[in-house]
Prior knowledge:
Elements: H1 3-13, H2 15-53, E1 57-60, H3 66-74, E2 82-83, H4 84-91, E3 96-108, E4 111-118, H5 120-127, E5 131-134, E6 145-147, H6 149-155, E7 162-165, E8 168-176, E9 186-190, H7 191-197, E10 203-204, E11 206-211, H8 217-228, E12 231-234, H9 235-278, H10 280-288, H11 293-326, H12 337-341, H13 350-376, H14 380-384
Parallel strand pairs: 4-9, 6-8
Antiparallel strand pairs: 1-11, 1-12, 2-10, 3-4, 3-11, 5-8, 6-9, 7-8
Amino acid sequence: MTLTRLVISNITRRRGRCLFTLLGITVGIASFVTFLSMGGNLKKEIYRETNALGANLVVIPKGSCGYEQLSVLTGDQMPTTITTEEIGRIRKIGGLTVIPFLAQKSAINNRPVSVNGIEPAATRTHKRWEMASGEYFSGEGATEVVLGSAIAKQEKLLPGATVTIREEKLPVRGILKETGGRDDHTIFVPMAAAQRLFKVPERVSFATVRVDDTSLTESYSEKIQAAVGLGVVSDKQMLKSVLAIAGTVNLTLQLIAAVAVLAAAFGIINTMMTATYERKREIGILQALGAKQRTIFGIFLLESSFYGISGGLLGVAAGLTASTVLSPYISQNSMTSFVKGSGTGSTLDFGMIAGSVLFSTLVAVIAGLYPAWRASRLSPVEAISYE
């Protein structure tokens, strides 16, 4: 009998024990991969939304923290303390383009949706939107909506339908072409109508600023702060702040998953220690037939490696499936909307897959070292006389 067949025979001898040990490492790796996959997608979405913002500077309420900066990218509801008069003062500086937004929340069929009040003409030029169906806003003062492609598909809405926002029915004027970002999940309303609906007259949530000469970005930031006394962050500063928040959350989730992997490692130790005691007589016979200590050590180490490799492969498959299936059902909030936004909670990263399987195998090998050492240290007489 070859060494490989002997290892397989030993593993399948106690099928119930093998199954539960394998499930332990599978669940641990699956949770690890799920969080890792969603975290990778989260980071990619942050970069994409920052680029899609198309701004060199972002004007936010004074004293805003990283959470508000995150809300700028996700379209989540924000404080509406910036006045239209302040926006006008910024525009007077010259050499820049200012696009204000009113970020609010509403619901369709009891599902939360983002609503953005915008200046239709300026925002369309800034965002370079194209229409998939219907028409764009008829004017700056219109009381109608334009929908992102994803929200229109989700709610099965077409041009000519109506949506209810703050107990007022608004006609759907048109549907935007897919952008691949959070705009696809947003309802857009002309600024004046949005301010009236949400009872925030002459107020906006934030404004994006594109400067004509990017080498003077810092200078423009100082001029804006001097003119209105509001918070001003560059696109690079905002990206750094948001990534720091996302990184902290992602690390916490991965540490939780690592605990599950550690628990699975103790399951492997328990299984291998039990196998060592049950197979003392078998070990003694192998030694009597000339098997050396390193051979016995290798047999037990190969068995524990089997749990690591098999559990790693199954865990990766389960984790990627879980992140894809679960992401559309994640509650909408500033942190998780990135994962939900693109509709794909997982990305096929072969480096991550290989790393996860390697991690699983390494954990299993380490877990099997002590049982393998104990088995190899048994004396032939002690082992063969065991009953």
